[in-house]
Amino acid sequence: MDPETTRSALRDFCADRLGTDLAAGLVRLARPGFALAEAGPGEAAGHSRFGGRAMLEPGTAWPTCDGFPLSLIAVLDVDALAPWLGDVLPAGTGLLNFFSLDTDSEQCDPTSYELALKYNSFAPQMGKVIAARSAHAVETTPPARSSVFDPVAWAATPGFDFPDTWDPAWHALDLGPDADHMARAMPGQHVEELLTDWSKRPGALDSEDMAFGWPKFPTGSSPMVPWGEDPTIYHHLLQLSGQDEWYLGGDGGWMHWSIPTDALRTGDFVRAIPTPDIW
Q: Where are the domains of the chain?
């Protein structure tokens, strides 16, 4: 189904179970997103992939942390995903290159450990997102000491995503006058309890690797944004639960990149930051 048909079916699904008013508020929380999986022949979403070489416009500086090169983790071909995203970001954004400081893979340079001790994993210096226009982007040779992971092309299944159960975004949902104190304290959990067949909704996304939509946090938290900022003003860009060659946070962790919604709408990816979930 196309995005509008799917959203309409989702609205009907929710209204049948929650009533018109609560369903309308719930559907307003829905964001277009994509479940990412290894692509079979002919399934790749444009240039979208884990690993490989960065696709940058000539003359673009390779991102660094205190002069030490970050590593290319993934590329999203936003032009290929655009029909489902609508006005989430500017038309013609092209490709998004996701970089992070590699401190955990077998390739990582020992210098990265020193930087990891200086900065925490949520520091803006630890990850960057660089956009490149598709018509101008070329595969770019990484500098020395930057890890290069084997490329895995991605297929992208579109749908509509909702906040994690404990995400503060749920508090914007009006539960109606009959909701009790516990429902108002934990609105995400309350809605999930009402929708026992939630996994069967139109446009449902079920994947630990996600593009756009909302971030999921196994530790039951919300995006770790700079101190004092409101996490609800951020929009999710990419979630990676882990790869064979690269993983985050010692024993485990899911990597995320997020960006203030106003910056996303203007294509100001300089303001994108890493928002990982580490345990």
A: 3-278
At 248 the pLDDT is: 66
Q: What are the b/e assignments for 9-48, b being 16+ CB within 10 Å? A: ebbebbbebbeeebbebbbebbbbbbbbeebeeeebbbbb
What gap in Å lies between CA 55 and CA 254, rounded to an integer?
24
Q: What is the pLDDT of residues 193-226, one digit of tens each?
A: 999 999 999 999 989 999 999 998 877 666 677 7
Q: Give the global pTM.
A: 0.95
CB atoms within 10 A of CB 212: 25
For residues 95 and 76, the answer to whether their CB atoms sit within 8 Å is yes
Domain 3-278's class?
Answer: mainly beta
CA nearest 103: which of 123, 130, 79? 123
Report yes or no: 148 and 71 within 8 Å, Cβ to Cβ.
yes
Running DSSP on this structure, what letter comes out for residue 113?
H
